[in-house]
Amino acid sequence: MSSVAAFPSARHQDATGLRRLFVRDLVVASEIGVHAHEKGRRQRVRINLDLDVEEGAGPREDRITEVVDYEDIVVRLRKLVTADHVNLVETLAERIAQLCLTDRRVRRARVRVEKLDVFGDLASVGVEIERQNSRI
After folding, report:
1. pLDDT tens digits, residue range 26-58?
2. What is the three-class DSSP state of 56?
3. Closest Cα to residue 22, out of 54, 43, 53, 46?
4. Cβ neighbours of residue 51 closer than 8 Å, sequence gap 6 or more
5. How many CA atoms lie within 13 A of 46 on its CB side?
6. 67 contact partners, CB below 8 Å, separation of at least 6
7. Angle at alpha carbon of residue 85, lines to 79 and 89, rounded to 5°
8. Are the beta carbons of 45 and 114 closer than 8 angstroms?
9. Which of 26, 28, 85, 100 sits most deeply, having the most CB atoms within 10 A of its CB?
10. Which pLDDT tens digit goes with each residue over 6-29?
């Protein structure tokens, strides 16, 4: 076994490293649901994101432009979730994943969407998906 294959250079490791950006427990009022009583009204959804971001060498100059900006993600996420009525949490999760994957540095997005007000005797129902960036 060659030493190059067994022990890649530090530069190679930096170029292929990942950083995990996350958003935890964002609660937004959304028009979501397939039932008549869910149309035309908002209900709370909780969103959690885990984004695997290509790290490269990391932020060298300590500037926001060198990283995926979580504030930008949250602002766009709020706008998306409140824009239109969506029937399914699965559809909303797919739209959120696509929003996150528009940045080429985001290699993988894990998205969890939970409806919080469906049943009185449980905390939430929902879906979690994981999508990879097809442009890599």
Report:
1. 999 999 999 999 999 999 999 999 999 997 767
2. coil
3. 53
4. 20, 21, 22, 68, 73, 100, 106, 108, 109, 110
5. 11
6. 19, 53, 59
7. 85
8. yes
9. 100
10. 433 344 344 568 899 999 999 999
